[in-house]
Amino acid sequence: MALHADIAAQKLFWADLSQKAIFSTSIDDRVSRHVKMIDSVYNPVATAVDWVYKTIFWTDAASKTMSAATLDGTKRKFLFNSDLGEPACITVDPLSGFVY
Fold this sequence. Notes:
By secondary structure, the chain is an all-beta fold. The chain has strands at about 1-5, 10-15, 20-25, 35-40, 45-50, 55-60, 65-70, 75-80, 90-95, 100.
């Protein structure tokens, strides 16, 4: 499971292998409600949150892709959709505008 936070927005984001999806929840919510943001992520290995541009990035080991979406789960797109080999880790440096 990959877990990341947007502290300013008081949100947690995580990828769940068993449900093949990425979820979010409010950190300060007294009721444990989580929202499925993105589905059809076959083997989500890693996630990273860009809190400046409100974007979540993830790698999918099954489809060998790297994707991104806005933090509300919309505007989903592939960044790399072929020949990634073994995509595992991902990190973002929003202040410099780089994804590693």
